[in-house]
Design brief:
With 279 residues, the protein is an alpha+beta fold. It has 7 helices and 10 strands. The strands form 3 sheets. Strands 5-4-3-7-6 form a 5-stranded antiparallel β-sheet.
Length: 279
C-alpha cells in the first residue's frame, strides 16, 4: 500500500462524514448490546437497563471523539491534502482516545477489579472492532457510490456523443420545406409583419433566411423542439442560451455564438422562459 497517496475526496466529504458518524453510532450501540464486549454484564452486577444506559454513554463519548477528530481532519485538509498514512493515524488516535474513555467508565464507574493491562487489552480490541467494521463498510459503500456516479457520467457523455443529430425543417406558408438545419445551429427566429427571419449558423458563421409565414405557425411547427417564444417578435433556441439577466429595460437572454447576440424577454413570456431555463 502506498501510504503517501492522497485519499479520495469521498473519504472526507461532509455528507459522507455525517453518514459515517451516524452509521458508526448505530452500529456501535447495537454491537455493544448484542455482543456485550468489555466484559459487560458477566463482570458487573448491573441489569439490562443499566447496561443499556452505560452502553449509550460509551457510544456518546465515542462519537464525540469521532466528531472532534473529523473537525480537525477537515481543518487540516483545507491547508494540506490528507494522505493514507495521515488518515490511518487519525483513526488510530480515535481508537486510543475512545479506549481511554471506555477504561475510565469500567474502572471508575463500574468498579472493574481486573488489572489495567487486561482492561486495556480488552478495551482496545473491542474498540477497534466497533470503529473499524463500520468504517470499512461505509468506505466501501462510498467507493462503490463514487464509481457508480463516475460510470453514469461517463455513460451519459458517451450517449451524448453517439446521440443522433436532430434536424429542424422550416416550411413556408404553403407547407414547402425551405430550410433544414441541425438544431444546434439554430439561433433564433425574428418576426416582421408576414415574414419570419431564421437566424442560424452555417459553418459557425451567422446566416439567415427570410420565410413568408407567421410566428404562430412557427410555434406549432417547432413545438417538439426546445425553441420557445421569448417576445412578441422573437423565438429562441433554448439550447443556445448562455445566460439570462435583468437590465434597466427589462429581462434579456444572451446566446452562445461567435458574435454577441442579445434578445429581449417580454413580461408575457418571462415566467415561462425562466422556468424552462431552470429545468
Amino acid at each position: 500500500m502506498n501510504w503517501k497517496r492522497i485519499i479520495p475526496d469521498y473519504f472526507v466529504k461532509r455528507r459522507n462524514t455525517v453518514i459515517q458518524i451516524v452509521f458508526t453510532t448505530i452500529f456501535a450501540y447495537v454491537f455493544i448490546l448484542v455482543y456485550h464486549p468489555f466484559g459487560s454484564q458477566s463482570w458487573f452486577q448491573i441489569n439490562s437497563g443499566q447496561f443499556a444506559f452505560y452502553a449509550g454513554s460509551v457510544v456518546v463519548l465515542g462519537m464525540l471523539v469521532v466528531i472532534i477528530s473529523r473537525v480537525i481532519m477537515t481543518q487540516i485538509q483545507k491547508r494540506h491534502p490528507i494522505t493514507v498514512s495521515g488518515y490511518a493515524l487519525m483513526v488510530a488516535l480515535e481508537i486510543l482516545a475512545m479506549t481511554g474513555f471506555y477504561m475510565m467508565i469500567q474502572k471508575v464507574f463500574l468498579k472493574d477489579d481486573r488489572f489495567w493491562f487486561e482492561v486495556y487489552y480488552t478495551a482496545i480490541l473491542n474498540t477497534s472492532l466497533i470503529l473499524l467494521i463500520p468504517y470499512l463498510i461505509s468506505l466501501l459503500y462510498f467507493a462503490w457510490l463514487d464509481k457508480k456516479q463516475n460510470f453514469e457520467k461517463l455513460l451519459g457523455a458517451k450517449q451524448m456523443e453517439t446521440a443522433p443529430t436532430r434536424f429542424v425543417n422550416f416550411n413556408d406558408e404553403n407547407g414547402d420545406i425551405r430550410l433544414t438545419i441541425q438544431l444546434d445551429d439554430l439561433l433564433y427566429l425574428e418576426a416582421s409583419e408576414n415574414y419570419v427571419t431564421i437566424h442560424y449558423l452555417d459553418h459557425n458563421q451567422p446566416d439567415r433566411m427570410l420565410l413568408r409565414t407567421s410566428m404562430k405557425r412557427m410555434e406549432e411547427q417547432l413545438s417538439e423542439f426546445p425553441v420557445s417564444r421569448c417576445h412578441r417578435s422573437y423565438m429562441v433556441n433554448l439550447n443556445r442560451v448562455r445566460l439570462a439577466k435583468k437590465t434597466k429595460t427589462g429581462m434579456v437572454v444572451e446566446l452562445s455564438a461567435s458574435v454577441p447576440i442579445t434578445l429581449p424577454v417580454s413580461e408575457t413570456y418571462k415566467d415561462d422562459i425562466t422556468k424552462t431555463l431552470r429545468m
